[in-house]
Amino acid sequence: MLADGFDRAEVLALIAAVEAQSEHPIAEAILRAAEAEGVARHDAQKFTSITGYGVRAEVSGHDVLVGADRLITHEGLDIGALADEERRLAERGRTALYAAIDGRVAAVIAVADPVKRSSAAAIRALHDLGLKVAMITGDKRETAEAIARETGIDHVIAGVLPDGKVAALDDLRGTGQHIAFVGDGINDAPALAHADVGIAIGTGTDVAIESADVVLMSGDLRGVVNALEVSRRTMRNIRQNLFWAFGYNVALIPVAAGLLYPVTGLLLSPVLAAGAMALSSVFVLTNALRLRRVRPAMDDAAKAATAPRMSPLPAE
């Protein structure tokens, strides 16, 4: 939706020039919209990313700001009549951004990030494992709660900056729970590093991937469920191997030391001892190789389901 006195094509062209310098998924959606409408292409100068707020650049002599409402408020600009439109968009689960040109709010932009069918399935699977799911986001509470209702998320923490995500993890950890955090963006990097286990989406930014302990190769959240399943089976396998290795040594080391010789005259030949030791190693290795047969916790057919990418809504 445009403010009075602004042209749609011109505003979209200026916004797209700024977003072309950004790695955020929302930027990709805006660029696709600009390409679809064939708007003029401009180059942006003096690009600045304001963490947790938005981006700023100079385009064709214009000072252009694109970001959340807190960026506009921080700059002391008047949102005016666009505030009501932003609120309606947020209640529909849309991500709403403002664009300001030369110190005037020019437009509110709605970006739809459709919930993947696989995401709701992943959350159900996490619930089946006895886990609670929270969403920590910089989006407005109305947007976050709309998505939470759709997917079955238990707890929502919205409207937070990157440092706020770290504080939210500390609050959740205060209940005595271990925390795994899943994220893909620059703003998620501090929380990924701070969580007990940071899980990065492989399709996300490089800084998020570098900050995480686990990287999922796809953008499917069901990979989180599969990672938990593989981790649990791996730890169970390690405990099994430790048990059998320890029991094996407890049983045979006394025999090899001659403990039974005074009573039974039984000694363990060095050749047999070496063979038994090799057999122990083969047993442990074979047991570990069973992990290669672990199947994904989520159904393969369901995993093949895909969802539309983030896409811009038509402006009014």
UniProtKB/TrEMBL annotation:
Its main location: membrane. It is found in: Membrane. InterPro entries: ATPase_P-typ_cyto_dom_N, HAD-like_sf, HAD_sf, P_typ_ATPase. Keywords: Membrane, Plasmid, Translocase, Transmembrane, Transmembrane helix. Signal peptide: none annotated. The keyword Transport does not apply. The chain crosses the membrane at residues 242-261, 267-289. PANTHER family: ATP7, ISOFORM B, P-TYPE CU(+) TRANSPORTER. This is Copper-transporting P-type ATPase. It comes from Sulfitobacter dubius. The lineage of its organism: Bacteria, Pseudomonadati, Pseudomonadota, Alphaproteobacteria, Rhodobacterales. The gene is actP_4.
